[in-house]
Records
---
Amino acid sequence: MQVLGQELVKWYENHHRNLPWRHTKDPYQIWLSEVILQQTRVDQGLPYFLKFVHTFPTVELLAKATEQEVLSLWQGLGYYSRGRNLHKTAQIIAHEYNGAFPNSYEGLLKLKGIGPYTAAAISSFAFDLPHAVVDGNVFRILSRYFGIDLAINSSAGKKTFEKIAGEVLNIKQPALHNQAIMEFGALQCKPVAPKCSECPLQLSCAAFAENKVHLLPVKEKKIKIRHRFFVYHVQTDQENRLALERRVAGDIWEGLFQFPMIELKSSEEQITYLQSFATSWQSPKFKHVLTHQKIEAYFVLAPLREKKEEKIHYSLQEISELPLPRLIDKFLEQHRKDLPI
Ligand code: SF4
């Protein structure tokens, strides 16, 4: 652990970029740089940082500006809500804190728009408090250096990396350590094409030794959930048999049997559609959750109006032997008594 910290600082002393926010202990300027650099590259953010410090040298002056003045200066950075929040936080610090930033991690966390990363950055850079920053660069270095394949966007992964970042932190020089680890991630252990061949950590880096650099860090893919709205039509024939259709290929429950069904685009459309069958018996809403889909379904005791392919009618006994989606099974279990058979 100690070796990692020492090597990072040694590397930093020879390779770091000369950036103005690294020469100040003013929490206002440090906060300004952190807000500007969120979702913005250093070379793009630098002129904005200089413009803001020049126009509003203190948090009080920023607080006194109109929103229009702040946003005109922000123009071109995008994400205007960040500019607005910057202004609001400046007003809170000017009015509620007498213009002085809280000098503790916990105090900083209470401010609007300041999360654990920014609180750790300000408390270490401005006040030399021993809080480890954990941003994308830090996740990447720790995951590769220690060969950890826990997803960095999972809660278990975040906890583990935060814990390791805290253990690796040089508590005697937290500001220098935090600058060093982030700069190392930005310039050396980069997301794509890291410079392993000229890396001072190469001999002790687990990912390098195991040839896993390109596989780390691991990120869980966020699953996009599709919301679907079904109305099933329960229809009997004169022999008390129920009409069923078979689900087509290329969708969930391929080949399984179901009541003739119509799919609506939204919950509003589904409700309007159901209102057109107001005189027919209707089930309560069924919610059915699959890995990538959330289905809201109703069952109506009425034939489906639109023409569809020929339906086949089955007795309940026959249906019990057919492959059915769990949703249809659930309906039959709960509402068998409501069917006119
Ligand atoms: S050897 Fe490569 S992967 Fe390992 S710390 Fe250095 S740059 Fe990153």
Note: The domain at 226-338 is CATH 3.90.79.10 (Nucleoside Triphosphate Pyrophosphohydrolase).
---
Amino acid sequence: MDDGRVGVYLHVPFCERVCPYCDFAVVAVGRLAAAREDRYVAALLAELAGRRGLFEGRPLASVYLGGGTPSLLRPDSVARLVAGVRAAFPEAEAGLEVTLEVNPSRLERERLPGFRDAGVTRLSVGVQSFDDRSLKVLGRAHRADEARATLEAVAEAGFRDVSLDLIFGLPGQRLADVERDVAEAVGWAPGHVSAYELTVEADTPYATAVARGQLVRPAEDDVLAMMDAVGEGLAAAGLHAYEISSYARPGRESVHNRRYWQRRAVLGLGLGAWSCEPPRPGAEHGARRVNPRGLDAYLARVESGRPAAEAPPEVLDAATARSEAAFLALRTARGLDAAGFAAEFGLRPRDLYAEAIDELRAAGLLQEDASGDLRLTPQGRRLSDSVFERFV
Ligand code: SF4
């Protein structure tokens, strides 16, 4: 539901090379040439200028530079982008969250003080694993020692708000490997951890290798045990699961990520970026817009003053919006607030999903309290996809 503010997401598609499991909008560049970087940054700022009107006057809630590998940008480019967003939305809270995703590499380590001076307040470090074998299986460009060196440099540069990314469920990975990853992650005392199960996306080299039997994924039960180990290890260190894949110390939850789960307004800029547009007459439940994934098409459209997305935004009808509201809220520890849901849609969750709620409760996957609020049980979190599909 709309909170009257706006979060801004800037997608930077460049990566040193493309990891075989990745299906994000990315472009392999090796080293990012200055002219290419400058052209893309200019396009992002032009897109911002063309689209800010829809969000005019809204206080800025968060800024997130994601990718791709946004830390391949020079600090002066990051500074231009952050300043551009702040100028477009001058009203911002003190202590505004400005997140930059960082990959562990020497080049990026050297730039950390520059990123800090550019206005970045929070880093999301793509560690993925502290085990070289796992990093090799993932096809990542870095090794564990580089991740450690980056985390040291992050602390030296004075960043206090740090998130680590971990991935589990890799081919050949064992429970003990995941437990070691979690233990080392906790040792770095991050305020936030995102821990994702590896998913094999269609049309990736990974999907081909799995189909050919060249990569064998761990059994489902083993992956569930890994998920439990992640949750237990992080909880023991004071990082609570506030969303299915997101863990934080109190007060360190990601402002930006929460906006998506709460269906708040987000202006997404750049290749393949998604926007959540706020409700307006004719779009009472808001609208969604997605940018093209091809770099040339994106640049050509933006540089000629046209909207980045060729298609008009998708206006959400009530049924789609209800369904999204339900399963996005169920991703979070807070769960689905029945009164808030009724305020927006005129019906309580039970009025619409009584059969699903009763069956999921009987299966031990869902809790319903006296006020009608819904929450996943621990077992429901493990089998969340089978819960969510009942609300679609
Ligand atoms: S570094 Fe991240 S965004 Fe880039 S290719 Fe690898 S997984 Fe994808």
Note: The mean pLDDT is 95.
